[in-house]
Amino acid sequence: MNDGKQIWVWVETLAGQVKPVGLEALHAGKTLAEQLGATATAVLAGGPDATVPEAVTGSGVQQVLLIQHPHLDPHNSLGLVEAFAAQIQSRQPAVVLMGATNHGKELAPALAAKLGVGLATDCIALDVEGDTLKARRPVYAGKAHITFQFGEHRPCLLTLRPNVFRPSQATAAEAAPVETVTAEIPEDGLRLKIKDVVQAAGRKLDISEARIIVSGGMGMQKPENFRLLEELAEVLGAAVGASRPVVDNGWREYSNQVGQTGRTVSPDLYIACGISGAVQHLAGMSSSRCIVAINKDPNAPIFDVADYGIVGNVLDILPVMTAEFKKVLSP
Ligand SMILES: Cc1cc2nc3c(=O)[nH]c(=O)nc-3n(C[C@H](O)[C@H](O)[C@H](O)COP(=O)(O)OP(=O)(O)OC[C@H]3O[C@@H](n4cnc5c(N)ncnc54)[C@H](O)[C@@H]3O)c2cc1C
């Protein structure tokens, strides 16, 4: 790994704020830079008026690269591939990290293909052995872990699973210098142009980044009963998730779905309500730090992965939990 001295971290922002996964990637990047004797560079992209939040300049990275272009605001993955690839080719970082978010999942493979380099996706741990970078990720729907080792092509591209790595704290005494570059994005080569971004009405916390998720399955019995989950989520500051049949039935939107064909989540606390624990559901949530399951069937497979289990009718238990949490958490 001595063939490059820079670790780059693509920091995602939303409305001028660093997304939590951006802070996590920054921390992972700084740690890696220390282990490899390299420098950490935060990379941000945006329109001509884009600025760098203090959480990035004060994060302890050695430098910040801000890539600007009118086609990068709003986010345009094809434009970003062009802009990012050009910077990587001219500056040659050894490693590029980004969050395994919707944007990261779109950007990283396109970038890897354009640069002809390897990509490790959805990593949950990074390790350095001698000069070799190793990355671990779950495979076979979370039943096993695989460790990747990169070949000789640089940079090593990695996406990091949200909520797994510790977030960076703004600790640096001095702000890192910001270098601003204007990207060259060929107008005729840009096959995708974003005309408008419409925010979903009443949009709640994104389940991929939520620290607490209250998730409902078919045991909730009808869509109206999800009100009980919304109430508990409100008290806990949580996001509401769902199993696939709930989504297939149209009770919740697809962005709520947890599992193999939905989102992969790793919150601090996952409360599974009336969810059986099918392997496809577990694939999306079994890396949660603490799992609480509520199910009327004591033999439901969800109890095999749960840290705490409650056997009973979820419709009776949820209002009691909400009332108790309200008492404990109210100021
Ligand atoms: C290719 C493929 C991909 C898939 N991808 C996903 C995926 O991404 N995510 C996903 O979730 N599933 C996925 N599935 C579906 C998965 O196999 C299961 O069918 C699904 O997870 C079951 O959802 P459930 O637990 O909500 O429903 P059920 O299996 O119907 O379980 C309902 C549970 O609720 C309990 N219950 C019922 N009433 C109550 C009550 N009053 N109080 C307490 N408990 C109660 C029951 O005991 C039961 O355990 C996929 C399947 C396939 C084949």
TrEMBL record:
Residues 7-194 form the Electron transfer flavoprotein alpha/beta-subunit N-terminal domain. Pfam families: ETF (PF01012), ETF_alpha (PF00766). SMART domains: ETF. Keywords: Electron transport, FAD, Flavoprotein, Transport. Coiled coil: none annotated. The keyword Transport applies. It comes from the Bacteria. Belongs to the ETF alpha-subunit/FixB family. This is Protein FixB.
